[in-house]
Specification:
24% helix; 3-stranded antiparallel β-sheet; alpha+beta; 83 residues
């Protein structure tokens, strides 16, 4: 997904949230949302998030590290039967 600015002749440009995909050998675009009425700061924050950054401009960081995961469900049943 990306944000595209489409110029209009006699009015302000349309700002669109779009997705691109392939159909055979052609690249197609699908408009997901019209962001024209959003304030510029909100559009830039969304653009940063789509790039994998925070709204403040820095890269996204992990909030925690996974140290150990516990088995559950069918995995726990198989392990219990084996033991």
């Amino acid at each position: 997904m990306y944000i595209e600015r489409m110029p209009n002749r006699n009015s302000r440009p349309a700002i669109l949230l779009r997705e691109s995909f392939r159909e055979g050998s052609q690249v197609r675009k699908r408009t997901i949302a019209n962001l024209t009425d959003w304030p510029e700061t909100k559009i830039e924050a969304l653009r940063a998030v789509l790039r994998g950054q925070t709204a403040l401009g820095g890269p996204l960081e992990k909030a925690f590290d996974i140290v150990r995961s516990r088995p559950h469900g069918h995995v726990a049943a198989v392990l219990g039967a084996l033991r």
